[in-house]
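Hi W., the zinc ion complex you wanted:
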Amino acid sequence: MEKYCHACGMPLEKKEDFAGNNEQSDFCVHCADENGNVHTCEEIFEGGVQFFMGAAGADRALAERVTRKNMKKLPYWQGNENAVLQGDEATDVEFAEAMGKTVKNFFLVMKSFKLVVFAPITHADAVREAMGQAGAGKIGNYTHCSFSSRGTGRFLPGEGANPTIGEVGKPEEVEEERIEVLCDEESIDAVISAMKAAHPYEEVAYDVYLLGAR
Ligand SMILES: [Zn+2]
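Structure:
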């Protein structure tokens, strides 16, 4: 997976992008000193505000709201109660506009995905719960958000298959649920692993869609 700074979201592409030229670091050269010590929340917030005022042409109030929204999505600031992170955040539209005006792919963490998985109804709750616990389905102050619909799954187990339901060489029909959840870049790998662990099938049918910025 591409790396990005855990404190500001900047992509870490070349050695010089990393704090202290250390490619093991989770932070960019702007957010941490050469020893890897991360700057204060206030310093990084101010850096973000200046960046958006310059790169996106935002006024100070909008730049603060965009910076706040960005930082609060990043892993390093989870649970941080610093005063600069409290207050209004940019709307999704404002945020996407500000991002669109900055360097392409600047905020990799903003990539979001729709994960769709098909599970037999007997295991649908377990699969939903596992994905929610792994971080799927976060929308604002809500977690474990999902949508499910029912239908018929069909498959024909071939030679060498070890089907949970049905038998080799016999066409099978199973009542299944199509479960849809949102995932961010941070959680998508863990969500897929958790989903597969909770799913009873030998071969799990699922799709991952990359979503647009708006
Ligand atoms: Zn950074």
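The pocket of zinc ion is lined by residues 5, 7-8, 10, 27-28, 30-31 (CB under 6 Å).

W.
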